[in-house]
Amino acid sequence: MYQRNTHSAPSSAQNSEDDDSDHRSELAKERRREAHTVAEQKRRDAIKKGYDALQELVPSCQQNDGTIAMKMSKAIVLQKSIEYIQQLEEEKKAQEEHLTSLRKEVIALRIMKENYELIVEAHKRQPGTNEVQVPDEAKFRVFQTMMDSLFETFDHMVNASSFSDLSAGVFNWLEEHCKPQALRELVSSVMTRFESASSCS
Fold first, then answer.
1. Contact status, residue 143 vs residue 105, Cβ threshold 8 Å
2. Quick check: helix, strand or coil at residue 138?
3. Environment class of 157 (CB within 10 Å of its CB; exposed 0-12, middle 13-18, buried 19+)
4. Which residues contact 103 (CB under 8 A, 6 or more apart)?
């Protein structure tokens, strides 16, 4: 006797639902793969643009006419970029040291100018001062000799690594080398040398 299969319809529906679920899962995986591929391509494009920009900025990556040289490996571009940065840092340090030296020289010049003016005024007030006219060139040579001597001691004593060191160094230098007695001895020495040189010429 034939018996009717009552489970065939629900089983077919279940198989259909499983197929739909598998299809949706595959679609989701495909979308994720596509998204990952797009993201990876964007990342590679960004890296390439970065290396291209480095080649345009770093002089050693360019030809003599300023155009980008032949294709370089990423390792070479990075190495040349590092060398260029180190070169810029060394140039910056040298410029800062030169600027510090110039600042110290300006301070010394101002101090020496003021001291020179005081010495000249004191000399004018002395009785029996010889009024023989001295050429401006001779006065400049005397002042320059004094300046060179004082700046040598100033440069040796004053440290300009910080403002506090600079300030302390300037005052210490003033106390040691700019006392009236020290300045008189310096002026006397300079004038003696100048007088000797003038008599020989």
1. no
2. helix
3. middle
4. 160
161 and 96 Cβ atoms separated by less than 8 Å: no
Q: Which amino acid is present at 90? A: E
- CA 26-27-29 angle, to 5 degrees, is 65
Structure tokens belonging to residue 107: 């301070």
**C-alpha span between 108 and 148 (Å, rounded):** 10
Residues 6+ apart with CB under 8 A from 91: none
Q: pLDDT of the chain along its 201 residues, tens only?
A: 444 555 455 566 566 666 667 777 888 888 888 888 888 999 888 888 888 888 888 888 877 665 665 678 888 888 989 999 999 999 999 999 888 888 888 887 888 788 777 777 776 666 555 555 666 777 778 888 888 888 888 888 888 777 777 878 888 888 788 877 787 788 888 877 777 766 665
How many CB atoms are closer than 10 A to CB 158? Answer: 21
> Phi and psi at residue 71, in whole multiples of 5°?
-55, 125
Name the packing angle between helices 74-125 and 163-177 (round to 10°): 30
CA distance 92 to 89: 5
CB 178 within 8 A of CB 107: no
